[in-house]
Design goal:
Chain lengths: 301, 402
């Protein structure tokens, strides 16, 4: 009998072995190594030199050498505050719309259509949005001028660039949508029927049934979206980085934390310092996530 | 199960062995060329080399220019780097200081090596502590490019520059000049204007920033003034120069083929960057270097000597969309018969190298760019912005020279 459970245990571990190896090799090991490198001066070409917590001290206190450390933090927080509500909101609305579709074929068409941006290469996405946001010929500006508003230099103006990026990120809300959709499908129709019998309006059943029952899903999405938004990099790098030569957008208004980290790691040859930056971010996200677990409602009761 | 494992291991080892016993192979990393024809030229150079040195194989790997340095140092950090690679000029001294590229001085003393044939400007970028760590393969410079349909006679002086800018400007339709933004690229262009006003970026010792001199202030004030006739809204629009909405821009020879192929109707001319007191431009370019871990340094040296010799230097410059670095290839008709390329060659005579300070990139990206931005946004006067920048740059310059 005991033998059987041991065998089952081994089988269980064998099943998760590939993932364990993956997590160990590609996530945990690099994290531990970067903690080590964050205590060194290292440009990736020579042997790292141990300097203790010097990198952390410099980052926080040396405003001549690292003038944009605090700035990049602020930019990132602004971005998170814009991108997370917009992403979750639009994903939720899309899920509601798709859930209300009765024909199965139509439903899967819209599911695919709205999920497509997620699997599109961000370089292609950037190219498309560059055109949409173009200051003279852009779709958006032409639309605005037709409505009588003045067109904006969306990506070139410090006041609008970050917001434009957050909207762009909203385009990839397909993952949020799919997860919400799964949540919506998981709500038993009995609840709605019961509410209907009791004479509840559609709005009331949405407010008292749908929203509370989706709480665990919303919680999960907020936590993961906040983490992902804190690490925003790719699209900014494509739009303003290597090719654009501006490394931070107009007036450094899109110099997010990870962009700043990247500049130090690969442009200024300060990999040790970049590792320190990544660790600071790690700690911050950790604290933020714990706070979210404490504050946000996670279940319905 | 076990047998399968052993079998696959043996297979793996066999594969490994067969690779090791092949001809001596050199891995060569280069920038991804913009045009297909440039790939063909490169393929021919390598074919020629393998014909001359039949026991050596060269495997070329193209990487996008923007990611080249990132990929290179990452690969080197894990011991998977190439044997031979392009290296942006300012990186050579850094790589040499770190001991990751070969000192080539002893090879270069050989009698058959024509060291004198290399132009001294580019060759000096390969020097570190009195020794050579690479060979120059290309040089390039930026010049003023203007739309002939909008500007009939290009400006020679700053006064003419402003006069033409005012004349050609049309609100909402035509911007006079592609005034660089206050970012890394803008900060890279800025020195050309400081030099054109007779100034320098840093003093002789390299430890003191002097771009806040009158020349620097004049240069920045020129940009501020030009910006009045060059709305960002037009400049930031895609292909604004190509579609005739910007009259004049600063750009490099790498655009020539692009325009020829993609904008055949674009009627553009090239001229020297207008001067206040003297003509000036920024020099840029690449060197070729050998990694210190290269297993076949002798063969690698033969290769870089081959691609920079009289017969191939011009070809290689063509691959890179820039100009050769040898005196004896300067008359190559591919560079002299094309009026555009000829003008860039002319502009290169007035080139100034960027400072070789350790933190220069950072000063460029984070300090100078900020001053440009503040002055152009009208937040500070040019003088105030540059003074403040120079003060901060000095701290980094001194720390970098320790």
């Amino acid at each position: 009998m005991i033998k059987a459970t041991t065998r089952e245990k081994i089988a269980g571990y064998l099943f998760i072995l590939p993932l364990l190896v993956y997590v160990g090799v590609f996530l945990i090991a690099p994290a531990v190594m970067s903690l080590f490198f964050s205590m060194t001066q290292w440009n990736m070409r020579t042997q790292p030199i141990w300097i203790g917590i010097e990198n952390y001290k410099e980052l926080v206190f040396n405003h001549v050498k690292y003038p944009y450390f605090g700035h990049s933090f602020w930019i990132t927080i602004k971005y998170v505050l814009m991108a997370v509500p917009m992403g979750i909101g639009s994903g939720f609305c899309l899920a509601l719309l798709i859930n209300s579709v009765k024909r199965e074929k139509t439903e899967s068409f819209f599911k695919v259509a709205f999920y497509l941006p997620v699997i599109t290469s961000s370089v292609a996405v950037a190219a498309i949005w560059k055109w949409i946001y173009d200051s003279r010929y852009g779709l958006l500006n032409i639309f605005l001028t037709k409505l009588g508003f003045e067109g904006q230099n969306w990506l070139g103006d410090a006041r609008t660039a970050l917001f434009a990026l957050a909207v762009l990120a909203m385009w990839g809300c397909g993952v949020t949508m799919i997860i919400y959709l799964a949540g919506l499908k998981g709500i038993s129709p009995q609840f709605y029927e019961a509410a209907k019998i009791d004479g509840a309006s559609a709005l009331a059943s949405f407010w008292y049934i749908t929203l509370p029952l989706l709480r665990p899903v919303t919680f999960f999405l907020i936590v993961t979206n906040v983490i992902a938004s804190f690490q925003v990099f790719e699209i900014i790098y494509v739009l303003y980085g290597a090719g654009g030569g501006s490394y931070g957008g107009p007036n450094n208004s899109t110099l997010t934390y990870i962009m700043y980290l990247y500049n130090h790691a690969f442009r200024y040859g300060e990999m040790g310092l970049a590792c320190a930056m990544s660790f600071i971010l790690f700690i911050l996200i950790l604290i933020l996530t714990i706070l979210q677990f404490k504050i946000l409602p996670q279940s319905y009761d | 199960m076990k047998r399968l494992l052993i079998f696959s291991l043996v297979l793996l080892m066999l594969f490994g062995a067969s690779f090791a016993s092949a001809a001596e192979k050199l891995v060569f990393w280069a920038y991804e060329p913009d045009e297909y024809i440039q790939r063909d030229i490169m393929a021919n150079i390598i074919k020629d080399f393998e014909k001359t040195f039949s026991d050596v194989k060269v495997e070329i790997i193209y990487l996008p220019k923007g990611d080249f340095e990132t990929k290179l140092i990452t690969a080197m950090a894990v011991g998977e780097g190439p044997d031979i690679f392009y290296l942006d000029q300012p990186l050579v001294s850094k790589f040499a200081a770190d001991g990751v590229i070969l000192n080539l001085s002893s090879y270069m003393r050989a009698k058959d090596f024509e060291k004198n044939m290399f132009l001294s400007g580019p060759l000096n970028t390969c020097e570190y502590n009195g020794a050579y760590y690479g060979l120059p393969i290309s040089q390039t410079a930026v010049a003023l490019i203007y739309n002939k349909d909008l500007v009939s006679t290009p400006p020679k002086t700053w006064d003419e520059f402003l006069k033409i800018a005012k004349a050609v400007y049309k609100e909402d339709n035509i911007a006079a000049f592609g005034v660089p933004s206050g970012d890394g690229w803008g900060a890279w262009i800025f020195p050309a204007f400081v030099h054109a006003a007779g100034g320098e970026m840093v003093d002789q010792t390299g430890k003191k920033a002097v771009f806040n001199s009158q020349a620097g202030v004049d240069a920045l004030e020129l940009w501020v003034e030009l910006l009045k006739y060059s709305p960002r809204k037009i400049l930031d629009s895609a292909n604004s120069f190509e579609t005739g909405h910007v009259a004049m821009i600063i750009n490099g020879p790498w655009m020539l083929d692009h325009w020829k192929n993609n904008w055949p109707d674009l009627n553009f001319g090239i001229t020297l960057i207008p001067k206040k007191t003297r003509y000036a431009t920024n020099i840029g370019g690449e060197d070729i270097a050998i990694a210190s871990y290269c297993k076949y340094p002798e063969e690698a040296w033969n290769f870089i000597k081959f691609v920079t010799n009289k017969d191939h230097a011009a070809d290689l410059a063509m691959v890179m969309g820039s100009f050769p670095t040898r005196a004896d290839t300067a008359k190559d008709p591919r560079f002299t018969s094309d009026p555009g390329r000829k003008m860039f060659m002319e502009q290169m005579k007035y080139s100034f190298a960027r400072p070789r300070a350790r933190y220069w990139l950072k000063i460029n990206d984070e300090i100078i760019s900020k001053a440009l931005r503040e002055a152009m946004a009208g937040e500070k006067s040019a003088k105030e912005a540059l003074d403040e920048a120079a003060q901060r740059a000095n701290i980094l310059l001194q720390e970098g020279s320790k």
